Amino acid sequence: MLLATLVLTLIAGIGFGLVPAWQASHVDLRSAQTGSRTVSGRKRFVSLGTLVGGQVALTVPLLIAAGLLLHTFLYLWNIQPGFDPNHVLTARFSLQDSRYATSQKVNQLFDQVIARLHETPGIEAAAASLTLPYQRGLNIGVQLPGATQYKTTNNVYVTPEFFAALRIPLLQGREFSAGDSANSAKVAIVNQAFVHFFLKDQRALGQVMRLGRDPVEIVGVVGDVMERRAGWGNFGPIAQVPNVFVPAAQTSDAFLQMVHTWYPSNWIIRSSMPDRQLIAAIENVTRSVDPMLPMADFRSINDLKAESLTFQRFLAALVNALAILAALLTTLGIYGLIANLVSERTKELGIRMALGSTAAGAVGIALRPALQWVLAGVAVGSAASFGLERLLKSFLWGVQPGDPVTLVAVAGGLLIATAIASLAPASRIVRLNPADTLRSE
User: Fold this and answer.
1) Mean pLDDT, residues 92-102
2) Are strands 151-158 and 243-247 parallel, antiparallel or unpaired?
3) pTM above threshold 0.90
4) Which of 104, 153, 192, 440 is the most exposed place for a label (fewest CB within 10 A)?
5) Which DSSP string do the residues of 95-119 spell out, in sequence order?
6) CA–CA separation, 156 vs 129, rounded Å?
7) Can you list the positions of beta strands (E) in 174-228?
C-alpha cells in the first residue's frame, strides 16, 4: 500500500506538473515583450477551469453517495424496535458442553438461574433465549396448513418470561407458561410478520403447522421485533422477519445439540439496577448454579443494535470521510481558479472601475467564468451520479437512489463552498484602487 501510494503520488505530481511546464514552453515572445497576457492567460484559465470543473464533476457523485449512505444508516438506526429496549441487559454463554447434551439438563439450568435471579432485588423479569433482537435468527423449514412443501422461516426457543422481559406486545392468544412442558402438546407463538407473510393475514390462532418434523399449534401472535438480515427473502440489514417462537422446554435433545453448535444462548434481564451491579448479580447467580459456565459478554440492546449495523456505519463513515476530503480539495481548487482569474484580470478590473464600474460589478465579471465551470461540473457530476446510485441500490434502505433532497443539498453545498472560496479573491477586487491601476498602466 505504501509503495502504491508513493507511485501514484509521483505520477500525479509529475503528470500535473507537466501541464504548466508545457504551457510555459509555448509562450509567445512577442506577447511577452509587449506585456499582453490576454491569450496566454485565457489558455491557462481554460486549463484550470477544465481541471476544477472535472474535480467538481467527480466530487458530486461521491457527495451524493455519502448522503444516501448516511441517510440509510440514520433510517435503520431510528427504526422502532418493536419492544422496550430500556433497562434491559443481555448475557451470552455457550451450552456446547457434554453436560448439557439433553433438553432436561438445559431447561434445568434455565429454571434454576431464572428462579434465583428473581430472588435478587431490582430484577423485574428474566428469561433465556437462543437469539436476541437485532441478531440473525435460526432458519428452519415450516409446512403450513394445507401446504405440501416447506417454506423457510426464523425460529427461536425462549423461556416463558421472554416476552415480558422485552415487553413485546401480545396481539392475540396467550404467552407461554410453565404448563408448556415436554409432556404437553407442542405449541408456538408467531409474530405479526409471519401471519402477514405466510398466512396472508388470516386468523392464526389454533392453526396447526409442521415445524421441522413436529406438528405445533399456534397459541399466540406477538408484535414484530427487529432482527438482522435473515439469510433468506428480500429483507434489509435489520427488518421485521417472520419468526416462530417455541418453548425451550419442548425442544428435543437433537435440536439443542445442533443449534448450540452454532449459536450461544442468552440471558435477558430487565432491571432497575445499575449495569455494573446487575452484571455482578448475574455472574454470582450463574456461578452458584454452575461454577463452570462463564459469561462470554454483557450487552445492552443499543450494543446489539450497533453490532447489527456495523457494516452500514462503517460504509457511511468511510464514504463520508472521503467525500469531505474531496469537498475540501475541490474548495481549494475553486479558490485557486478564482484567485488565478482575479490575478490575471486585476488591471482590467481596475480600468473598468476607473471608468465607472461598481465594485460589485467587477466582482461579478471576475467570478462569473469560475462559477460557470463549477455549475458545469455540478451538472456533469449529477448526470454521472445516476449510474453510481444504481450500483449503490443494494446498500440503500429507506431512501431512493435518485433522492432529490440529497441532490439539491449536494449542489447547494458546492455553491456555498464556491462562495466561501470566493471571499478572499473578491475582497482583493473590492480593495482595488482604480487610480493606482491607471498610474501603473
Assistant:
1) 92
2) parallel
3) no
4) 440
5) --SGGG-SHHHHHHHHHHHHHHHHT
6) 7
7) 187-191, 208-211, 214-222, 226-228
